[in-house]
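Data card: per-record layout.
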Amino acid sequence: MRVLRLGAVIQVTGLARSTIYKLISTGDFPPPVPLTGRSVGWIESEVSAWIRTRVALRDATSTTCAVCGRKGNGN
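The structure for this 75-residue chain is written out next.
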């Protein structure tokens, strides 16, 4: 089991710190694990699962362009 610090979570997800904590507060992102006094980390497999879920949601709602054959979100 690998623990990611905030900087690694930001790098892996591409999200800003404030967005990560906002998603945590709404229950939409894995919560951090307390490590020591003021230090927290995220379980890598939980963050990876969150990313896989986001990709699956994208793929489930994507449509294929009739002209170019590329997948898109219908916009």
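Known properties of this structure: The longest helix spans residues 44-61. The beta strands are 3-4, 33-36, 39-43, 63-64, 71-72.

See the next section for split statistics.
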